[in-house]
Amino acid sequence: MVRGRALPPADAVTVAAPAAPPASLARALDDLPNVSATDAAEVVERYASDYGGVVRRRPAVVAQARDAAGVAAVLRLAGRHGVPVVTSGAAHTQGGQALGTDAIVLDTRRLAGVEHVDPPTSERTGSFVAGAGTRWIDVLTTTMTQGAVPPVLTTHLGTTIGGTHSVGGVGHTSVVHGAQVDNCVALELVTAAGDVAWVSEHEQPSLFAHALAGLGRLGVITRVRHALVRPPDQVRVALYSYRDRHVLLDDVAALLAADGRRRHALHAVHSWSVHAHRGWLHLLSVTQPAAPGASPPSLGMLRGRPVQDRVAAFAAHVLEGREATSRDWRLGSGAPTVRPGVDVFATPEVSHDLGDTILTRLPDAIRGTTAVLTLFLDGARSGRPLLACPGAPEVHLLSVLPDAPVDTRVAVLDAVRHIAGAAASLGARRYLPGWHELDDAGWRAQIGGALPELARLKQAVDPAGILNPQLPVPGGVTRDS
Ligand SMILES: Cc1cc2nc3c(=O)[nH]c(=O)nc-3n(C[C@H](O)[C@H](O)[C@H](O)COP(=O)(O)OP(=O)(O)OC[C@H]3O[C@@H](n4cnc5c(N)ncnc54)[C@H](O)[C@@H]3O)c2cc1C
User: Fold this and answer.
1) Tens of pLDDT along 437-467?
2) Considering only CA atoms, which of 155, 108, 147 is closest in space to residue 128?
3) How far apart (Å, rounded) are the C-alpha atoms in residues 163 and 49?
4) Do the bridges between strand 404-405 and strand 305-313 make them parallel or antiparallel, or are there none, so unpaired?
5) All domains of the chain, ordered by start, with CATH?
6) Whose alpha carbon is nearest atom 28 of ligand 1?
7) Does the reported pTM lie above 0.85?
8) Which atom of ligand 1 is nearest to the CA of 50?
9) Closest ligand 1 atom to the C-alpha of 431?
10) From the CA of 93, how far away is ligand 1's center (Å)?
């Protein structure tokens, strides 16, 4: 691993006045080695909105680099001319986090490919190294051929590994393994000055810790080294339905408590709520490793109505339905919709209360097309400073994902604003790939105790504030986006 250059002290950093922009920014970028860039209207237009469909920011240029050196060259050129750079993976965000007006949008998807797989053994976890623009579906299918899986997968695998490491990455197995950022071993990071370094728990640990779930504000991630575990050969998948979400949550608490601190008997737990003609129905899915010939521990304490109980080969289970959710959402057909998702980290107590608000506050017109998910995290494993997890042993991630006709936009935004306000008044912080309208006070509350160190790092590695300026660091470098 390349040894990282130590950061300069923040107060020693000076910023040169930007030079006049070149006559054609796209041409200047396109002339850089290993970089392609365009300002063609039809391409630029595709990068003006994200999955959420409510924020619009039209960039000046779209650039792609084939390696870290190409990314460094883009950042140095942007820095010389004072042009903001917004990093974009698969743009699954819902609040414009990967969009920038008049910016260079740096699409990472050419930094793709799994380069190395070190499979786990019975004594130790393994790891893989891949380009940041690699889609998770490609990571999964590659590592599965070597009998290994990443500990945590999110529901949609068309996302890039750089994108989910920049937000957090929470999935069904987070109840055992925490978030993806908790399972990251090292990052290759390019800072605004064009310095390329591997950062980890051992090399520039603070920069590593704050680049994870850091929303691309400290650098562009170009490669990731991430843990691999050996999956069970088979899993038992049990599904229960509940009419009362409180009963479901109490059952989950009992299940986790009975399972003990090491949670051996669980592979994954998640829950979702659907609105049908008789009102809300809440489903709980529990997955356990199932050794051939041996029964998994009993789930008899669960009070829901059993809907399904089956044993499946792990490979079939983990890949089930994944192809459809891995397609590039930009290629979707049909009428455009608005999808301003709201994601909130909550203690179990807050999850009970906020769930009530969500289920009563969703407008009738969109109840049927809104997914309400609850994921569960082992709080003891989720320690990255910018992940905004409450310091509780059991952490819930509530996600409200509306998918509504454009003409209901006002009602949908009104509902998500109300849910976001309720979350804030309960003292909960947000998971930030979703839609948000944070002002200065909101950002301060969101970043919380990590703010002084994040501001110090921002000043040291991006003193002109060219990286993702649409996502501010209060008290640090700011510039108009
Ligand atoms: C339908 C749907 C389901 C989802 N399900 C889950 C789920 O189960 N669990 C979960 O945790 N999340 C979930 N998400 C959220 C998703 O994981 C995030 O939106 C994630 O950021 C997607 O990755 P991406 O490649 O699309 O990133 P983008 O949206 O392109 O980028 C996300 C942020 O990271 C920055 N960024 C991207 N790449 C880099 C890089 N290489 N270096 C530095 N910064 C970078 C961007 O500037 C932006 O701020 C879901 C989203 C959708 C739309």
Assistant:
1) 999 999 999 999 999 999 999 999 999 999 9
2) 147
3) 16
4) unpaired
5) 21-110+449-461 (3.30.43.10), 114-228 (3.30.465.10), 234-425 (3.40.462.10)
6) 91
7) yes
8) 29
9) 11
10) 6
